[in-house]
Design goal:
two-stranded antiparallel ribbon, binds S-adenosylmethionine, alpha/beta
């Protein structure tokens, strides 16, 4: 995969930082990602940011279909030409944040497996979009910035725990499968990476009645994670009931606790009583 450097040079391409273009050049890591994704021959795979298509080619050998979404028009054109003879690969030149996953799901009539070496700057908003459209996907195998992966699996009371941990854990079983050194990429990013595997739960840990509201409450609280729960809520821009403290006490939570100590179940309970 030293050929990636050569290929970039041949096409006169300079990796674009703004688009998180750090190409995976370690073949062992590529194989490990593919193994983690457990792609079977009946699977439809969505690959985000295929770049020069090393992973796309490997996925195409295993899957029924690969849909590869690339924002960079030059890379998308190169990839379309490269894979012109592989009819079960569809290259879409588009910002993945603008893809309607529900429509994609209806079109494919199948749960989709996501496999991606993600552009780091869009990973958090994209993860929230995956959660919103979770029925469209069966599993997700994602290479992410190590810090983001650690936020996803973080437990209450830790520095990394926040809205992303709550949302992703509420709806899925997930684990960090392995870490990847920055030297596995060209150009190497400033941070290490991790590969996370996500499988949706049949039912969330607790069913929130309003996911958007829960998101607002979690974000509102964690905007002021060093304050007490009541102070954090009062500083947020949420519209709150006057009897805030007594409502929090009623569900067995001490309003003086710091937001970061609340479990996922407690956050869901908090969102419910703040709404009613
Ligand atoms: N898959 C390749 C690999 O593993 O070597 C490239 C991975 S690189 C980390 C991220 C890729 O995502 C780049 O090709 C970049 O152009 C693309 N990308 C960045 N932002 C994107 C977006 N919003 N939608 C789709 N692709 C995007």
């Amino acid at each position: 995969m030293a050929s990636i450097r050569r290929e970039l040079k041949e096409h006169g391409l300079v990796p674009r930082k703004r688009l998180g273009q750090h190409f995976l050049v370690d073949r062992n890591i590529l194989s490990k990602v593919i193994r983690t994704a457990q792609v079977e021959k009946e699977d439809v795979v969505l690959e985000i940011g295929p770049g020069l298509g090393e992973m796309t080619t490997a996925l195409a050998k295993k899957a029924k279909k690969v849909i590869a979404v690339e924002i960079d028009s030059t890379l998308a054109e190169i990839l379309k030409k490269k894979l012109a003879g592989v009819p079960h690969v569809e290259v879409i030149k588009k910002d993945v944040l603008k893809i309607d996953f529900n429509q994609l799901f209806e079109q494919e009539g199948n749960s989709i497996k996501v496999v991606a070496n993600l552009p780091y700057q869009i990973s958090t908003p994209l993860l929230f979009r995956f959660i919103e459209s979770r029925h469209a996907f069966s599993t997700l195998t994602l290479m992410l910035q190590k810090e983001v992966a650690e936020r996803m699996v973080a437990s209450p009371g830790t520095k990394a725990y926040g809205p992303l941990s709550i949302f992703v854990q509420l709806f899925s079983n997930l684990s960090i499968r392995f870490y990847v050194k920055a030297s596995a990429f060209f150009p190497p990013p400033k941070v290490d990476s991790a590969v996370v595997h996500i499988e949706w739960r049949k039912r969330p840990i607790v069913e929130p009645s309003d996911e958007e509201w829960l998101k607002k409450v979690a974000r509102g609280c964690f905007g002021y994670r060093r304050k007490t729960l009541t102070n954090a809520l009062r500083h947020s821009d949420l519209s709150l009931p006057n009897d805030l403290e007594s409502r929090i006490r009623k569900i067995g939570i001490d309003p003086k606790r710091r937001p970061e100590t609340l479990s996922i179940q407690e956050f869901v309970g908090l969102a419910e009583i703040l709404k009613s």
